[in-house]
Design goal:
71% of the residues lie in helices and 0% in strands. The chain has 253 residues and is mostly helical. The chain has two domains: 5-88, no CATH class; 93-233. Helix 6 (91-109) packs parallel to helix 9 (155-172). The protein is globular. The chain starts with a helix and ends in a 6-residue tail after the last helix.
């Protein structure tokens, strides 16, 4: 999902678009990119954000689609060849950039909060709220982007972005699990984030906050119920039976 150029800009700029390559028509990327050997990816990051600024402004009128992506790149002075290098997946790449911008904005807002002073449910609620409000600053663009990611062929990148946000939220909340709980926590939180963000964009903050609170209550109730269960007992029983079939009963001491 992350635009490929942001990882290899120095090689692509030097080798693919050097001089006046016909693929890059107009002002080539090589001529636009500053020479910075200490941070060769700086140009790509800055150009991505410039294009994203235009996308946020254009999306309310054009929607979140290939037409909008092209218009945003053109507004930033990029040719079609430049766009192919910077945003090979067009509106999908812009959706990823928007999601990560809102993640960064949310965690900047949470910088003054010490999660250790909050209960786990409070940490998650605070984190989701910050993420929702970070996106609400670009409300109309978020609505268009949400519609784009809701299309069947965009379900996979949408879920990956939700997982990415959930992972960052759990890391901020202090989660250090490395077993299956690491994945189950993120899966559950992703399942809350997607509808919560959608509700925030279309139904408002109050409805979204109430939804998050109810879902967290559901999860906490489930966790309390699960804590009193031994889910590995059936597996141990089957293993014990198979062991007896293979090796016979245990010898008496």
């Amino acid at each position: 999902m992350r635009p490929a150029l942001s990882r290899t800009v120095s090689q692509i700029v030097a080798g693919f678009c050097g001089g006046s390559s016909p693929r890059c028509g107009g002002p080539s990327i090589a001529h636009m990119a500053p020479s910075d050997e200490t941070d060769p990816d700086r140009w790509a990051r800055e150009t991505e954000q410039a294009v994203l600024d235009h996308a946020v402004a254009l999306a309310p009128r054009l929607g979140w689609n290939a037409t909008m992506a092209r218009a945003a790149c053109a507004a930033a002075g990029l040719s079609e060849g430049d766009q192919d290098l910077l945003l090979p997946h067009g509106p999908r790449d812009l959706a990823a950039l928007l999601s990560r911008r809102h993640d960064d904005r949310a965690f900047a807002a949470l910088a003054g909060v010490d999660p250790a002073t909050l209960k786990i449910r409070e940490r998650i609620a605070r984190g989701i709220s910050a993420r929702m409000e970070a996106g609400a600053e670009d409300l109309e663009a978020c609505r268009k982007c949400a519609g784009f990611l809701a299309l069947p062929h965009n379900a996979e990148p949408g879920l990956k972005l939700a997982w990415e946000t959930a992972d960052r939220l759990w890391t901020w909340a202090g989660d250090t699990a490395t077993d299956w709980n690491h994945y189950s926590k993120r899966a559950i939180l992703s399942g809350i984030l997607v509808p919560a963000l959608t509700m925030r964009w279309f139904d408002g903050r109050e409805a979204a906050e109430a939804f998050v609170s109810d879902r967290i209550d559901n999860v906490m109730t489930f966790e309390k119920w699960k804590a009193g269960k031994d889910f590995e007992a059936p597996l141990r029983k089957v293993t014990e039976v198979l062991s007896r079939m293979r090796y016979g009963p245990k010898a008496e001491a």
